[in-house]
Amino acid sequence: GRFRNILVHNGLQEQLFAQVIKLLREKGLLLKKGTIVDSTIISAPSSTKNQDKQRDPDAHQVKKGNEWHFGYKAHIGVDKDSGLIHTLKVTAANVHDVTMTSKLLTGEETVVYGDSGYLGAEKREDAIITNHSGKHIRYKINRRPSQMKKGSARSQAQ
């Protein structure tokens, strides 16, 4: 609620998070073999006006399914083995998931998992194709059900 909004408005959420990640790395709790990428919408009040009688200029609206949401989007990178979040980026809600993929990777992973919002991530100009060790990064992105062929064992396994 209010605490989260104070962090976002002052740009402190990423600094605070960076300190937590630093501690986790020092303790050896992040394994960094693979990353799961995802995002979630953080709602902001759409009717609240600031001193200039404007809605929050950093928040935007986005349609998810059949519903419209106003606010921000938290993009996260999660260590696939420990389940710990290693990367957090906050944007306006209308920023598409796939555009943030490369910003969510550590550069040490060998595999990236994501939902259909990340389709085509490995083909983008800013895509990270090899990790710091020079190994190829595999992107395992789920496709939308409408993109899978009915009855295909391969399409059901992905």
TrEMBL record:
Q: Which GO terms describe its molecular function?
A: DNA binding; transposase activity
Q: Name one GO biological process term.
A: DNA transposition
Domain of life the protein comes from: Bacteria
User: InterPro entries annotated for this entry?
Assistant: Transpos_IS5 (IPR047959), Transposase_11 (IPR002559)
Domain Transposase IS4-like intervals: 32-143
Q: Membrane-spanning regions, if any?
A: none
Q: Which family does it belong to?
A: Belongs to the transposase 11 family.
Q: Which PANTHER family match?
A: TRANSPOSASE INSH FOR INSERTION SEQUENCE ELEMENT IS5A-RELATED
> By what name is this protein known?
IS5 family transposase
Species, as recorded: Intestinimonas massiliensis (ex Afouda et al. 2020)
